[in-house]
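This part of the workshop introduces the protein records we will be handling. Getting from the letters to the tokens is the skill we practise here. An example says more than a description, so a record of this kind follows:
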Amino acid sequence: MIAIRKANDRFHTQIDWLDSWHTFSFGDHFDRNFMSFRSLRVINDDIIGAGQGFGMHPHRDMEIITYMLEGGIAHQDSMGNGAVIVPGIVQRMSAGRGLLHAEANASTTGPCRLLQIWIMPEAQALEPTYEDRCFPALGSGELVLICSNDGRDGSMKINQDASMFACRLPAGETRTVEISEGRFGWVQVASGEVSLNGEVLNHGDGAAVSFETRLTVEAGTDSEFLLFDLA
């Protein structure tokens, strides 16, 4: 079963420096039918104005992944980490028992765009940790494992039985993914248009996958998407 969450059905926050679309309930937006999917709690599609961003603020008990699509985001946190994250580099924070961080558009001349993803951890009050990593294989057209619970295949380790893959798929190409029995999936289209088991998904669309053993993704245009394998 594939249940599509259309881009325009997402919650929307727009202020002078931020244009954000929320796949699940977030901030002042609440719908008990769209709180999460399995352990996947947040997918925010954020466009941040030049030189603007989020000041220092707290997080706890959440696995936070920043996936850049355009431009760069400057990160600072209470653990002493500082970095500029650009497309091809992915950031992972395990907030654990608590941390503070700030993130701002690294450019003073143009906007940046990112997907901020939150995954609920398997335990609370863990030790906070930070990592960012370059994934050169993202340009290969293949599914690239970004995060996993065991850090396999060069992925970043998260504290949950979940895996996140990313793919930049050229128009006309197809990728097939096997899903183990009892597992679930979520596909989020960052750009372009894909067909997921015959269902067309466009930029910003997401799809909850239940009781499917195989996913076939075909790109109608040059596309970028994320795939989550969830317990």
Q: What stands out?
A: The chain is about 0% helix and 55% strand. The chain has a mean pLDDT of 97. The first strand starts at residue 2 and ends at 5.
